[in-house]
């Protein structure tokens, strides 16, 4: 068996090795590009403070850049006996750079190495999720604008309640996603601190420059306490997944509505044939599997977030090997969230609205509250007007004036606030674009010859 990074020459039981390695050789493939970038920044820092010869740092950065590109292209492999991506990456460095590769681990531990790789990975994933969320919010705004005045029954308790519109319905989900885009910046702030230099959780007795490497990698600050750096394992993953779950919670409600409104019994919406699947036994079926699976993904995300919280919870401070089990559910959740957002960005604009059926479902009873307000406008106290309308509904004399009142306040059916919402979306997109560009510039600085 190949020598591990921590090996001291004693044999290791094969079953123990397999159990402790787990699925890291597969999971870590997603982290290798970020590990390579972090390692290159570390090499530059070591040269900057005089702990590594400049020519050795140059050789390491060049080799790490090539390995980064190979990992991005799917050509990097981690052999089971190598234990994890860190071992595989260091072995490749030694093979390509000789003695220089043996110096890369100076002044760091696998603990802060994986912390940094995960932090870089999660920042990249958060920006990608933000871009997809912004795209989806835009499709909801387009839907709301295209169907702004089309009548739609408004429901409470799954019973008809008040008049609504498709515009009001679509705007609700655009608004929810815009709020999530605001919250994203808070999650980014939590991830925007560099843990490198924490080592095993107690720093290193060497004159390293943590601020230098943080600036090099595009972090706004250093995560000061080395113990807290280790304690943040699970905390930051949970914050990211909690945000993703909140996005999914908004979408789950929309998916439920689509499932209901596209039933034959409602008929307000229809999915194009390309978004449905058939039955193996019933020729007439056009099943909304994409809606149901997307709804299931929302619940799956909550399950994975709970798994992260369960693994990280109940531990004392500092590093524990339990943290290894955080990687798989985190990566799985982020992959699932991106797929969910991508497919819904295609589904929203493809929905077909049946305005005739929705209009027919808006019967007179929906206007009961409106009629009470019309009576109030004529001088009646609201409670008296409420009782009067109730009496009319009971004795069959209710005949409302459907056009008497319109909700013109901000957010009402007559004033959706589309222009303001589009400005907010533009601001969110601008922040995402600028932040992404800043991270790309930081990577370019690390890789510069």
TrEMBL record:
Start and end residues of each Fumarate lyase N-terminal domain: 35-303
One cellular-component annotation, GO: cytosol
Molecular-function annotations in GO: argininosuccinate lyase activity
Subcellular compartments: Cytoplasm
Catalytic EC class: lyase
PROSITE patterns: FUMARATE_LYASES
Organism domain of life: Bacteria
Pfam families: Lyase_1
EC number: 4.3.2.1
Record-level GO BP terms: L-arginine biosynthetic process via ornithine
Catalysed transformations (reactions): 2-(N(omega)-L-arginino)succinate = fumarate + L-arginine
Predominant cellular place of this UniProt entry's protein: cytoplasm
UniProt KW Nuclease keyword: no
Pathway field: Amino-acid biosynthesis; L-arginine biosynthesis; L-arginine from L-ornithine and carbamoyl phosphate: step 3/3
Keyword Amino-acid biosynthesis: yes
UniProt keywords, alphabetically: Amino-acid biosynthesis, Arginine biosynthesis, Cytoplasm, Lyase
Family named by the database record: Belongs to the lyase 1 family. Argininosuccinate lyase subfamily.
Protein name per UniProt: Argininosuccinate lyase
Species of the source: Corallococcus coralloides (strain ATCC 25202 / DSM 2259 / NBRC 100086 / M2) (Myxococcus coralloides)
């Amino acid at each position: 068996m190949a020598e591990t990074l921590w090996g001291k020459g004693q044999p290791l039981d094969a079953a123990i090795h397999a159990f402790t390695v787990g699925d890291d050789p597969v999971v870590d493939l997603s982290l290798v590009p970020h590990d390579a970038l972090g390692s290159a920044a570390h090499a530059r820092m070591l040269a900057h403070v005089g702990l590594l010869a400049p020519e050795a740092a140059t050789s390491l950065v060049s080799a790490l850049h090539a390995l980064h590109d190979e990992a991005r292209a799917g050509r990097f492999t981690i052999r089971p006996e190598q234990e994890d991506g860190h071992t595989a990456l260091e072995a490749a460095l030694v093979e390509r750079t000789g003695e220089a590769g043996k110096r890369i681990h100076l002044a760091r531990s696998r603990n802060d190495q994986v912390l940094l790789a995960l932090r870089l990975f999660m920042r990249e994933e958060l920006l990608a999720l933000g871009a997809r969320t912004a795209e989806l919010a835009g499709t909801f705004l387009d839907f709301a604008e295209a169907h702004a005045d089309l009548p739609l029954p408004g429901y409470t308790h799954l019973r008809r309640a008040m008049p609504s519109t498709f515009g009001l319905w679509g705007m609700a989900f655009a608004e929810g996603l815009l709020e999530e885009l605001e919250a994203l910046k808070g999650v980014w702030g939590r991830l925007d601190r560099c843990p490198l230099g924490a080592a095993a959780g107690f720093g290193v007795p060497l004159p390293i420059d943590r601020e230098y490497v943080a600036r090099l990698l595009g972090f706004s600050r250093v995560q000061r306490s080395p113990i807290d750096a280790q304690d943040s394992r699970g905390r930051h993953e949970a914050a990211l997944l909690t945000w993703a779950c909140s996005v999914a919670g908004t979408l789950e409600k929309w998916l439920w509505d689509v499932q209901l409104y596209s039933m034959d019994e409602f008929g307000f919406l229809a999915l194009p044939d390309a978004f449905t699947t058939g039955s193996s036994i019933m020729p007439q079926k056009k099943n909304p599997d994409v809606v149901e699976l997307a709804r299931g993904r929302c619940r799956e995300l909550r399950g994975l977030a709970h798994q992260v919280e369960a693994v990280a919870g109940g531990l004392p401070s500092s590093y524990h090997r339990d943290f290894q089990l955080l990687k798989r559910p985190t990566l799985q959740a982020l992959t699932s969230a991106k797929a969910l957002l991508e497919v819904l960005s295609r589904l929203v604009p493809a929905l077909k609205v049946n305005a005739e059926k929705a209009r027919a479902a808006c019967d007179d009873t929906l206007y009961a509250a409106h009629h009470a307000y019309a009576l109030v406008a004529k001088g009646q106290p609201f409670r008296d007007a409420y009782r009067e309308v109730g009496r009319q509904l009971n004795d069959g004399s209710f005949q409302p004036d459907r056009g008497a009142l319109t909700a013109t306040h901000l957010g009402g059916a007559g004033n959706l606030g589309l222009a303001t919402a589009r400005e907010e979306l533009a601001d969110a997109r601008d922040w995402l674009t600028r932040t992404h560009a800043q991270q790309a510039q930081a990577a370019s600085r690390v890789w510069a010859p």
